[in-house]
Amino acid sequence: MMEQRTQKQLIIGLVFILIIGGLGYGLVDYFFVIESTCFDGVQNGLEEGVDCGTLACGVACEPAIVPLNVVSQKLIEVRPGDYDFVAQINNLNSSFGTSRAKYTLSFNGAMPDRSGTFYILPGQTRFVIIPGIRGDSGLRSALINVTEVEWEKVETFENISFPVQRKSYVVTDKNGTFSELEAVTLNNSDFDFDKVEVGVILFDDKGEIIAVNRTDIRTFLSKTERSFKVTWPTTLPRQGGARQDVEVLTNVFENSNFIKRYGTQEKFQKYY
Fold it and tell me: If we measure between CA atoms, which residue out of 213, 200, 205, 212 comes closest to residue 242?
């Protein structure tokens, strides 16, 4: 009889503890646990990020934005006191790009810093070329630092490409010593653009960058070809003809850069 009474008391005590524990959890949950809101710009409740999370909001969170990566950079002395700079920048984000990434180019105190901006698409690797740097002869290095990025989400892409063809690189003594690269590019898209940028990078037979330059093409109409030429006021090594990379890019984030879409007269207002 004593054993049955003891068992019954234990069962009653356990049920009592469970009831009290449940009530306590409910009170804590009611008074202290913050509910998910999914609209206030703050991560709260069961949200896995700001206003997102499959359980809390029914919307999966975007992957964290990865900073832009400087793959390589180089200061090139074209002639005494005259320099060009090139950096290769990589954007590892698949959904985010920027129309305005700010940078600072420093020269270890040898001369004042320079600053500027560039744009880059999601998943893109591109060269940022800064030509015409004047300084003391013997300047050894420069360092680029991306200081601020205005990220923009890109939902869809139009098919925009600028194939390069009929490329010619020559070193000549005609009217003085200089080197030049001339080529033709095609606007393969359905858009007329106000401005398209051309970057040229020359490599020697060891894969080292020996020269860079850039130019612009203005009012580039859809399905048309345009020629361009860049020159250097010096004789570059002829092995610069071993490889010439040409990047033809345009700022698709800038609405004013779109003049019109092929076949229509409306001004393009929103690309992404």
Answer: 205
- Give me the torsion for CA of 72, 75, 77, 83, rounded to 10°: 130
Name residues whose C-beta falls within 8 Å of residue 2's C-beta, 6 or more positions apart in sequence: none
48 belongs to a structural domain: no
Assigned domain for 266 exists: no
144-203 pLDDT tens trace = 999 999 999 887 767 789 999 888 888 776 566 788 899 999 999 989 999 999 999 999
Q: What is the pLDDT of residues 198-227, one digit of tens each?
A: 999 999 888 999 999 999 999 999 999 999
Query: Which residue, 92, 124, 153, sits at the end of a domain?
Result: 153
In the Cβ-directed half-sphere of 20, how many Cα atoms lie within 13 Å? Answer: 6
Q: DSSP letter for 59, please.
A: B
180 contacts: CB under 8 Å, gap ≥ 6: 169, 170, 172, 229, 230, 231, 232
How far apart, in whole angstroms, are the C-alpha atoms of residue 131 and residue 199?
Answer: 11
